[in-house]
Amino acid sequence: MLTNYEDLIPKKVLFNIKEIEEIGAIKASMIKKLISHGQIEIVKIGNKIHVTRIELIRFLEDNTISPN
Question: Which of 7, 43, 49, 61 is the 20 to 30 A CA-CA neighbour of 68?
Fold first, then answer.
């Protein structure tokens, strides 16, 4: 059974790094590392870095290993 991230991730368009960490998806230090390595797409508004809900779900699904 695969995890349904659509139900787990709040229904918002953009999340900042702190919000992603608060929902328990990915630690802030790991998000920053993923961003610097170009593994997760960001939206930059002014000086603030955001990740879209779609991108967060895509990343989580791509990196989820099924128990098979």
Answer: 7
Domain spans of the chain, in order of start: 5-62
Nearest residue to 44 via CA among 67, 9, 17: 17
Rounded to whole angstroms, how far apart are CA atoms 31 and 50? 11
- Check if the beta carbon of residue 51 is closer than 8 Å to that of residue 41: yes
| pTM given for the model | 0.86
The CA distance from 6 to 58, in Å, is 10
pLDDT tens-digit series, residues 30-45: 999 999 999 999 999 9
Cβ atoms of 58 and 25 closer than 8 Å:
no
